[in-house]
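Hey team,

Sharing the Acyl-CoA thioester hydrolase run so nobody has to redo it. Sequence (134 residues) first:
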Amino acid sequence: MDFYEISFRVRYGETDQMGVVYHGNYPQYLEMGRVEWLRSLGISYREMEKSGVMLPVISLCVNYKKSALYDDLITVKTQLKKIPLVKIEFDYEISNEAGEILATANTVLAFIDMKTNRPIKCPDYILEKIKTIS
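Structure output:
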C-alpha cells in the first residue's frame, strides 16, 4: 500500500526558544496525515463521527531521528499497515525538504460505536474504499 503525503511549514508556536519543534507536536502531525489519508479516499472523519463511529488512538509510537525546525517544510507520509478489522494501523515517516527523515511513527486506532462506547468492526463503506487502493 502506497504512502499518502501532506506537506506544511512548521509554525513558530510549535517550537521552543531554540526554534526546535516540541516533541509533543508530532502526534498532531500524525493526525493531520491520517485525516488527510482518509479524506483522499473520500472518507470524512466528521461524517464518520456523525454516523456514530469514532477512532480513538489506542497506541502511539514515535521514533525521533532529527529535529524539525521553525519554518521547515515538512512532509508526513502516511501508510495503512494492513486491512483493518476492529483496529486500523498506520505507519508514518516525517521528513524535511532535504529528504532527511526526522521521525518514524506508528499508530493503532480502534473503531468505536459512540452510543455503546464498545469496539466494532470497520464499517463496510470504509473497507470498500480501502480495497480500491490495496
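Residues 4-131 form a domain with the Thiol Ester Dehydrase; Chain A fold (CATH 3.10.129.10).

Ping me if you want the raw files.
A.
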